[in-house]
# Entry
Amino acid sequence: STLAKPSVPRRAVYDARFAAAYLSNTTLLIAVALLFRFSDFVKALGGDEARLGWITGIGTSGAIVMRLVQGNAIDRFGSKGIWFLAMMGYTVSIALHLLIESIDGPWIYLANLAMAGSLSGAFGASITFVSLRAPADRVTEVIGTLGSSGFLGMAIGPALGDLIYGWEGAERLAEDPAARLEAVRRLFVASTCFAALSWGSAVLATWGTRAKVPSARRRPPGWRILLRYQPGTLLAVSVA
# Structure
């Protein structure tokens, strides 16, 4: 006769940690969507569309740089620490916009650069944290489920932003530049609050977990790995 192997209980995938991660991603996307009127902020400070393009373009470079370094950083220090630092950076960088009184100078560029870079780090770390806790045969399912939080946040954020921005009435905002600036600043306050909530939820999701000690073996440079395993046509489609 053959002896049956004892069944090993599998850890639940959708537990309290996943719920906290889901809440963190949802509130993070609400914070992002509340700033869809960033162009109004630049215009209220006296900028035009060309200046807006430079500010957001330079800010986007922060996300690109973060993508190049965050993978190695997560491997070395764990997703928990990177997630915490990224969310702290994102929350603080949004709040810093409340101190900006002019687009003449480096501060709005630096704040936007930090905001985009830390946002990229938060996304990468949260996905890594959740996927590493899932069984190998359910990783795609878990990532897809977590991704639905983004759609939820993108649905709630703009509607909430319209309410916060326009409660004074469209006519007054159109006639009074100071009122428009004040309305945009309310969006930054609300976005900071949701980012802080996302940060706190990330702390709850990772509370009590420990990052794996990195191995002492030599690590190949990131650019070499990128050249070796680059997705080719898929990368071109993503760029398009």
Observations:
- The chain is about 75% helix and 0% strand.
- The CA atoms of residues 169 and 175 lie 10 Å apart.
- The first helix runs from residue 16 to 33.
- Confidence is low (pLDDT under 50) at residues 1-9.
